[in-house]
Amino acid sequence: MDVSLLDEPFQVTKEQVDFYQKNAFIKIKDFLSPEIVAHFNAVISIKVAELNKVDVPINQRDTYGKAFLQLCNLWVQDEEIKKLILSKRLAKVAADLMQVDGVRIYHDQALFKEAGGGITPWHADQYYWPLSSDKSITIWIPLQETPLEMGPLEFSAGSQEIMLGRELSISDESEQVIQKNLKINNFPHTIEAFDVGEVSFHSGWIFHRAGANTSGETRKVMTVIYMDKDMILKKPENDGQKNDWETWCPGVAIGETIDSHLNPVVF
Questions:
Q1: Residue 51's CATH number
Q2: For residue 224, what is the enclosing H or E element?
Q3: Per the domain annotation, does 172 fall within a domain?
Q4: What is the pTM of this model?
Q5: 164: left (phi > 0), else alpha (psi -120 to 50), else beta?
Q6: Is 103 inside a domain boundary?
Q7: Other beta carbons within 10 Å of 163
Q8: CB distance 136 to 100 below 8 Å
Q9: How confident is the model at residue 259, as a pLDDT?
Q10: Which residues contact 243 (CB under 8 A, 6 or more apart)?
Q11: What is the predicted pLDDT for the residue at 128?
Q12: Is 267 part of a structural domain of the chain?
């Protein structure tokens, strides 16, 4: 399939940039064509099936394990998937929304929530990332139409300003503590279905979650995490950040720009 459309620019409006700057997330309809989505659904599904080593029944896993199957950095393992992950179309919008001059890849993740899969608890992604600033962004790309019963991404608009909960990994505790604090402070909660070709972008510090998958099909999502091309590696503050340093930023020293072979500038 011709995927050259992935390098055709998508022009975000001033209103969309302003919305993202205020709320730290945005959903954009018709960002990818149905044909592109169907193509990468097939390609990524094959790679996930090939690489998935999880053989524990879903009802015997912990909350994190029930949330999704997670496979990372598929872009270095498959040339076709690489075309999506290193797409100028994706990367330019990431840069425009963050208002930076350019972006590097941090890493990608396939997140497949199986039929019967549990919730993804409230959390902030950047808990796991040894990044020196908030100029990080995740694009969440559903590989099929994603109604509410499949567990689409949910956002707490503006919650990137909240400090309570940033110290929590994805867990039953993070679900309870963060949810309670968001309700007390009356932060807006956005939960909507995703159409085919609709994607979302969200900041590393916004609190978000996803519901359980009560449908009979796997909810397939591909995510790409970009960061400011000038991002500095900070000293890790927890074991998750230490692991990310070693895994996604190999050879980079604390205080240096994250420019390893796994972190090319995309735009």
A1: 2.60.120.620
A2: strand 219-228
A3: yes
A4: 0.94
A5: beta
A6: yes
A7: 8
A8: no
A9: 98
A10: 128
A11: 97
A12: no
Tell me how many domains the chain contains: 1
β-pairing, 199-203 vs 25-28, is antiparallel
Number of residues that this document lists for the chain: 267
How far apart, in whole angstroms, are the C-alpha atoms of residue 24 and residue 17? 10
Q: Angle 183-153-192 (CA atoms, 0-180°, nearest 5)? A: 80
Q: Cα 124 vs. chain centroid, distance in angstroms?
A: 11
Tell me if 263 is assigned to some domain. no
What's the N-to-C CA distance of the chain in angstroms? 23
| pLDDT of res. 65 | 67
Domain that holds residue 59: 4-248
Question: Closest Cα partner for 106 from 80, 133, 68?
Answer: 133
Quote the distance between the C-alpha of residue 135 and its chain's center. Answer: 14
Amino acid identity of residue 138, one-letter, is: T
Within 10 angstroms of residue 42's Cβ, the number of other Cβ atoms is 12
Tell me the angle at which helices 88-98 and 14-23 cross, rounded to the nearest 10 degrees: 70
User: Which H or E run contains 220?
Assistant: strand 219-228
Each of the 267 residues of the chain gets a pLDDT tens digit; together they read 778 889 899 999 999 999 999 999 999 999 999 999 999 999 999 999 999 887 777 766 777 666 668 999 999 999 999 999 999 999 999 999 999 999 999 999 999 999 999 999 999 999 999 999 999 999 999 999 999 999 999 999 999 999 999 999 999 999 999 999 998 888 999 999 999 999 999 999 999 999 999 999 999 999 999 999 999 999 999 999 999 999 999 999 999 999 999 999 999
| Burial classification of residue 4, based on how many CB atoms lie within 10 Å of its CB (0-12 exposed, 13-18 middle, 19 or more buried) | exposed
* CB neighbourhood size of 265 (10 A): 13
